[in-house]
Amino acid sequence: MSQTRKNILFGLSVAFLILLLLVAPESYGQKKENTPVSKITAKVDSLLTLMTLEEKIGQMNQYNGFWNATGPVPKNKNSAEKYRDLETGLVGSMLNVRGVAQVKAIQKIAVEKTRLGIPLLIGFDLIHGYKTISPIPLAESASWDLEAIEKSAALAALEASAAGINWTFAPMVDISRDPRWGRVMEGAGEDPYLGSRIAEARVIGFQGESLSDVHTIAACAKHFAGYSFAEAGKDYNTVDVGTSTLYNTIFPPFIAAKNAGVKTFMNAFNELNGIPSTGNSFLQRTLLKDRWGFEGFVVSDWLSITEMVSHGYAKNDKEAALKALLAGSDMDMESHAYRNHLAALVKEGKIEERLIDDAARRILRLKFELGLFEDPYKYCDVEREKAVIGTQQNNERVLDMAKKSIVLLKNKKKILPLDKEGLNIALIGVLAADKTSPLGNWCIAAEEQSAVSVMEGLEKYTKNKITYSPGVALDLDENKADTDRLGIQNAVQMAKGKDIVVLVLGEHGLHSGEDKSRATLDLPGRQQELLEAVYKVNQNIVLVLLNGRPLALNWAEKKIPAIVEAWHLGTQSGNAIAQVLYGDYNPSGKLPMTFPKSVGQIPIYYNYKNTGRAWSQKYTDESNDPLYVFGHGLSYTNFSYSALELTAPEFDSKGSIEVSFVIKNTGNYTGKEVAQLYLRDLVASVTRPVKELKGFELVSLQPGESKKVRFVIDSKTLEFYSARENWESEAGTFKVFVGGSSKTQLETEFLFNK
Ligand code: BGC
Question: Which CATH number is associated with domain 639-753?
Answer without folding.
Answer: 2.60.40.10
